[in-house]
Amino acid sequence: MTVTPWLRSLKKVHLTLLLLDLDDTLLGNAMHSFVPAYLQGLAGRMASVAEPQKLIKALLDGTAAMAANVNPGLTLEEKFDAVFFPALGLHRPAVQSLIDTFYRDDFPRLSLLTQPFPAAPHLVSQALSRGDQVVVATNPLFPLTAILQRLSWAGLPAEQVPFALIPSYETFHLAKPNPAYMAELLAQLGWPEGPVLMVGDDPRLDIDAARQLGLPVFWIAASDAVWPGPGTEPPRGALEDLLPWIDRQPASALLPDFTLPSAMQAVLRSTPAALSTLLAGRSFAELTFQPQPGEWSAVEVVCHLRDVDLEVNLMRLDKALESDNPFIPGQDTDQWALQRQYIQQDCLEAQQAFLQARMNLLTVVESMTAADWDRSVRHAIFGPTKLRELINIIARHDRLHIRQVLQALHASRN
């Protein structure tokens, strides 16, 4: 089925950001049959260099490592490679041609195990035509070619459909069911403001993960399906029901709420991950481009995030956790950009230093008890408040500056 062009000129513009799961949401793909065939196919293709059962175990172990990854400094591909290839005594460059051949010649045959849903192209076409953005919110445990092929099997070829983002293991660091994966999706898009909806079939991987980030959700399920939890049963229906359901909701019902502790932690972890992808391969000119005089470039934002974590955020958290109702002074950090000549600093070094500072901050935050989140503090600007609000300020600060980085990079190419 051909997808109609993206028509922004229609009068009814919703501008909802739709995060659509792929397998068993846009494409019928029973994993209990697909995964064994995938494993056997890759093992057969690489039988000349690795014993099949040993390769399958290494592949499963590598996939489990990706799903469990919480290090925003490692892409899922890097995490996989660190498990898979050493277990087989192989190096990727030596066998890359075999892997490429598998995805070119063998993987397409797996389409016979999948079932296209006619409603999927129609849904995406309608959503784009009315001004919505559509993201392929699949679990990024595959290389991009495998995800693009499955989209084609679903009748949604990426060369014809203007998806806002298609994640893959090359460009993502976090995976479902970690809510930080959902945060990484939004961060790579520049934290767009407005309605957001996560749509998927899996209660744990899709619905619960999105809820932990504070996203509205819609469960794709048969009418007789029983909600297994966790949490209360979400809005539900078939793909055909989605857009009519959205039209019945007040705008406020589709706005995310990032103030849950799980959401704030997810945002904090996603920031260095998203920066790694957004800044990868950028030229010096792009990294130092200032959209307007006085506006920060990408490298200045990274240096700012690094120093604020090191010299402000960590110290504030420590003070709030070690003292009863401490006074938290304000601090003007904007002047550091000129004073410290951020624009002349090495962006990669600044990224690495920020990553380390952020991991230290996350260690503190994730060790906090429920009572710690409600510890009282006195802020110079906000007055009496709670520690949770200090952390919310950090998360909002992250979202603001990720948006600023994306805007600066976009302006550098215009």
Question: What can you see in these coordinates?
Answer:
- This protein is 51% helix and 8% strand.
- It is an alpha/beta fold and 414 residues long.
- A five-stranded parallel β-sheet has the order 4-1-5-6-7, sandwiched between helices. A three-stranded mixed β-sheet has the order 8-9-10.
- α5 (119-129) runs parallel beside α9 and α10 (261-279) runs parallel beside α16 (387-412).
- The chain is globular and about 65 Å long.
- The two termini are 35 Å apart.
How are the secondary structure elements laid out?
Layout (H helix, E strand, L loop, with lengths): L16 E4 L6 E3 L1 H15 L6 H17 L7 H13 L3 H15 L7 E3 L2 H11 L3 E4 L7 H10 L25 H10 L7 E5 L2 H11 L3 E4 L15 E2 L1 H9 L13 H19 L4 H4 L10 H25 L4 E2 L7 H4 L7 H20 L3 H4 L2 E4 L3 E4 H26 L2
Parallel strand pairs: 1-4, 1-5, 5-6, 6-7, 8-9
Antiparallel strand pairs: 2-3, 9-10
Give a nutshell description of this structure.
The chain is α/β, with parallel strands linked by helices and 414 residues long. The protein has helices at 31-45, 52-68, 76-88, 92-106, 119-129, 144-153, 179-188, 203-213, 239-247, 261-279, 284-287, 298-322, 336-339, 347-366, 370-373, 387-412; strands at residues 17-20, 27-29, 114-116, 133-136, 196-200, 217-220, 236-237, 327-328, 376-379, 383-386.
